[in-house]
């Protein structure tokens, strides 16, 4: 394990508390200091909220322990998930972060945006098979479902898993919800789901998430809807904190607009909350699940946990009282949502649903301006009006709310006169009743029964951490950390599971069906009739029967419900340690009742029995240790590279001939050894893959190929013959073999993609070089000015400096070679001056480039700066060498037949390059005039002829192959430029543009094109390699029927099957 990862810690933001992630065992997180290893106190944090332990294959994973308000990681609600550096975890109102304590303070952490909402585009081929299969294989789904290619999981809803999918017929990204097996098997639920989904598909509004399609394929029922790339607002709050009040007004405008549409269709959402307000990639807020939040979703929650429909923090008080919801109930939920988004808190906070619902019915909330002082009175009073306990105190409709929001967004009513009347005026509302004094009065009978049923379902969930189907794939060794809160392995939810048909009649008080050794349930001999039927999952929609006479009535109801839960638990067949966990959970949920006392007593008894059993089996530990030592020697865990197939075959051969202990302890440890063999092989393969990726990142694709070839040659992958069918013991699990094969498949895919990835790397490198080169050649006046003025020393430095920054070796070499030619051309003037001083010139008459037509002057001398001439009848003047820039004819006359000797081959080569550079400068001067944005310039036929002729003067000097190639390249580019300028002068703009594109594409490496280019393509652009689909390989998976892909589990003790 990497030491850096081994020192990751989880810290509570704003509290200063932190703890290192566990190297073994389990770290419990919650608000009860006596039970957890990391104390987190705050609204919505359960006493034992979640657990963190080591995961298979390295790293850590987090699992929600049935908390009432769940766990969000990077804005997505999860039940279990692997953790990574920089993850942001939301428990109720508290945010925690995974950090590296050894990192320097200024080090940034990865972007905590949820992967589920990543908005990267999908290539035409969709995702790679590895990504697609990872999203669907764990759920037993095909790669393509009903014409939708599954790309990755986005999260989980109340009735199933939601995936990002590609609708192949339209090449459109969608969110695809697939019902889970429990609901697919419900013959009454599925028709309602399909009918309501079809009805929801008819709802179309800019602020409502669109339902596209519903259907069935391969036995799976699915619903496709609009993919909201921006995620939900709860996730936004978790990542970025409370919203600014002006941003919140935009949210309210969009949500109110969607509710106006809902009211026009007679639809009440009933579960409006930040998690159901989604943003698209343009920031528009839309309401999710509108039209689905009726019978289907209500039945979903009732059958799952007998809960009151809606989320306690956002549910309207009249719904808690059992009254029928209407559009104003959604306005309350929207007000609670706005309060949450603006302040980071919910209006009413508590440790459980009962406390929160009591607050909604009888409590008072902190004013908006107390939690968010920068909010003007107008928006604050509008939100507080929406939270009126009396529906009559809220806006009369969503349309009235929308009008009030628009006034606030326009800057009106931000600072109303004063007091409560101003608050009513802002939203055109009746005056809301004042808040109570904060004393929580008893809740009416119906509300309390429903709330307690909610708490019973949530709090009574099985607290076992690592189920066999856990997507986080946590380590088998992550055992319980606190016997009062965690049991380690599987089991059904307690209160969420309906009683079996053989359960004792709760009204009779009989315990005849209880498991042996289970004491009689406490409480009265006959059960009082409860309002909602806890076994059927039906919630009463009738008016409440009225408040209880006093608190005793509520306590009696609590006792009766605890007795019923105890009866249900007694009827279930569970392993001892799982039963202990369930009993502890029951005692905590119904603390203070007789059932809680009986549950604790029975749990202690079962724990004592388990300890006695452990002592009885300790004598066999030496035999087990010796047997495992012999197997570990065959495993060869220190052999590099690992040989997993060789090790497994040796163990299978030994187990076929030797007798080994049959104890559960041996089987578990022997299975762990098989897992360790696979883990070591996977770690080695992953290390090789990382080295190969690093080589590719630096452009060394040959080394990448060597590394991958070496790994594949030495991988020693297991086959069907590795663990013969005649072996009396089971081999590694299919899950572990799949992990190893996945590493090998990644290596195969890396080899198959080698040329593709090399092309992408080269394309990106050239694109960066083009843009960097255009910037370097244009800076500080640019190469164009230097060539026009024959400032060749500066031009050579610019070209050499640009070449040194290029990543593409060929381009860097070309620029350095060009810079060398420019330096040689610059030296021609020094040679001319030196010859004048040494022996004089053969001809002393030169053409003055400063005059029209080149008036003849007599040269009196030359030096490194220029010439001294005497005009006819005038004083001596100086002509700088730069004056010859753009005057190729005069420059040719300056060198032609000038010396008393012949120019040598090297000098002629340099003069040819000098004249070519001068011609390029002449062409750039003509282009600069024509490309002026104000226009008015003309490119005459005479100028076109002069520009063509300018490239004829170097022809007589170009005797070497190199100088002729340079001249031909620049002359061809200039001819294209002449056509561009003539077309531009004639108004043939399409031809001019086409010619410019041809100049940059065909002659992009010429000095003329380099001086004009802005970094666009410099050759015929091939198809963008990024748009080419990468090679696809099928993922190899072991045959589930193979003896190599099966593993037995220890038999349960007698009586616990």
How would you characterize this protein structure?
With 1057 residues, this protein is of the alpha+beta class. Among the domains are: 9-99, Tumour Suppressor Smad4; 145-227, 2-Layer Sandwich (Phosphorylase Kinase, domain 1), CATH 3.30.200; 230-413, Transferase(Phosphotransferase) domain 1 (Transferase(Phosphotransferase), domain 1), CATH 1.10.510.10; 663-756; 779-1012, no CATH class. It has 33 helices and 24 strands. A six-stranded antiparallel sheet has the order 2-1-11-10-7-8, with helices on one face. A six-stranded antiparallel sheet has the order 12-13-14-15-17-16. The protein has a five-stranded mixed sheet with strand order 4-3-5-6-9, with no helix packed on it. Helix 24 runs antiparallel to helix 26 (792-804). The protein starts with a helix and ends in a 45-residue tail after the last helix. The model is unreliable at 1-5, 106-135, 294-308, 418-551 and 1045-1057 (pLDDT under 50).
